[in-house]
Amino acid sequence: MLGPLVNALVIAACGLTGCFVVRGIPGRFEEIIKKAIGLSIVYVGVKGALDNDRMLLLIMSMVGGAIIGELINIDKLMNRFGGWAEAGLGMRGGTFSKGFVSASILFCTGSMAIVGSMQSGLQDNHEILFAKSILDGSISVVFAASMGIGVVCSALPVLIYQGGIVIASRAVKDLLTPEIIREMSAAGSLLVAAIGFNFLGVKEIRVGNLIPAVFIPWVYMGIETLLIQLL
Predict the structure, then answer these.
(1) CA 102 to CA 105: how far, in whole Å?
(2) Considering the entire predicted model, what is its pTM?
(3) How far apart are CA 72 and CA 64, in angstroms?
(4) Do the Cβ atoms of 144 and 96 come closer than 8 Å?
(5) Domain ranges (residues) in the chain
(6) Cys-Cys with 137: which of 14, 120, 126, 173 at CB 3.0–4.6 Å?
(7) How far apart are alpha carbons 82 and 77 in whole angstroms?
(8) Cα 172 to chain center, whole Å?
(9) Of 17, 6, 49, residue with least CA distance to 139
(10) Residue 118: CB partners within 8 Å, gap ≥ 6?
């Protein structure tokens, strides 16, 4: 659990720095920095998605994940939790919820979160998550400067999500092939790109409702392998 713990602590510390130290930057600098970060996030997401080998599976995962996520309305649940925390802290204006949801999805999805957590669980190697901590810390400073304390609170779902992958990877290590990991990472990368578009203000995407797409390749390819063995 060392890797997920370090990642969460770095996000929280850098987020607090953004809230209380960098918060006073002029609006024009804040705006151009947000656009630069947004463009960078889109690039990282698209680049990661292009690493997949099964385009139709990726499309199917995104569509299926969107349907499942919309039925459950994960985005609404996350925003409701953010609103509850916002009210509990005596804050208003919706920036807490926006910062919490955006940062949580960004930090929890993508290849580094999945592969790094699996590497921590299977090999006790935390190098990827340590590198991810540096990237997440840099982004959380900018996010927190513009969206506030909600970004700091995103450290909790990061710890739970990555810690859960660490524990799960130990339990099901024989079911996670490199191919499954690659396709899951590709779907997660598209979610990261969506966060980038949201940050650019192009079109608001309910990224939370796309989260199930990350896990569909695992289910699909597991069933596919089982059918091949039976036939």
Answers:
(1) 6
(2) 0.69
(3) 12
(4) no
(5) 2-230
(6) 14
(7) 9
(8) 22
(9) 17
(10) 165, 166, 169, 176, 181
